[in-house]
Amino acid sequence: MPDLLFDALCATLDHFDAGFVAVLPDSTILHANRAAREMISAGGPIQANNGCLQACSKKATSLLLNSLRQLSGSNESSPPDGICLDVCLADATSPKGGAIATMKPLVDAKLNPSPVALFVTRIRSRRDCPLSGIAECFGLTPAETRTLRRFLEGGTVAEAALALAVSENTVKTHLQNIFAKTRLSRQGQLIRLVNDFKPPLRAVRADASGKAGRFSRQSCRSHSASVRL
């Protein structure tokens, strides 16, 4: 029965649109779902090197590892309830768009040290961004919505100004208004806000007969070092 439950858990995680990685504080990967494996295969926003998790740049990797150590240290000194960190993984000029990793200790895994659950979400294309709903919810003007779209795709202020045919000061003003209306202050928070409006599950693909595909037991074993959490 435990094996069946583990396989069911893996199959469920493979339905997530966000990448999920169970990782130790030293960055050793224990398990990765399908979305995370696709990100690793594509070379970003997360990567794997000799079974260890890293990001696309030295700066982002350093931030990621420091956050893992911070979560590990908090486990030893204080109760883990409510501990959650957001780490922005995408460089502002990345052609793959924005990405954010949400990290939380898996303290109930009964392992020492405790692994960390890492969820990676990203903005892949304009059609993936439900900006019309966000604009309506937060009262963004059309100009602010267009600016937000450019900002989420990783464009700089200068690039956004050129693309929108406005001045850089105008772009900065729009960004200030966006942050004020959404009550946010960082790019990573905006990325997470947009992704919160997206369905959390991947679309189910049907085969030629119109039936949804099944997961085999082997497909659930996404990593050779998978553990039962």
Could you explain the architecture of this structure?
The protein folds into 2 domains: 2-122, PAS domain (Beta-Lactamase, 2-Layer Sandwich), CATH 3.30.450.20; 126-196, Arc Repressor Mutant, subunit A (Orthogonal Bundle), CATH 1.10.10. It has 9 helices and 7 strands. The chain has helices spanning 2-14, 34-42, 58-77, 131-138, 142-152, 157-164, 168-182, 187-196, 217-220; strands spanning 19-23, 29-32, 46-49, 52-55, 85-88, 99-105, 116-122. The strands form 2 sheets. A 5-stranded antiparallel beta sheet has the order 2-1-7-6-5, with helices on both faces. Strands 3-4 form a two-stranded antiparallel sheet. Strand 3 (46-49) and strand 4 form a beta hairpin. Helix 5 (142-152) crosses helix 6 (157-164). It is elongated. It starts with a helix and ends in a 9-residue tail after the last helix. The relative contact order is 0.17.
Short description:
43% of the residues lie in helices and 15% in strands. It is of the alpha+beta class and 229 residues long. Helix 5 packs across helix 6 and helix 5 (142-152) packs across helix 7.
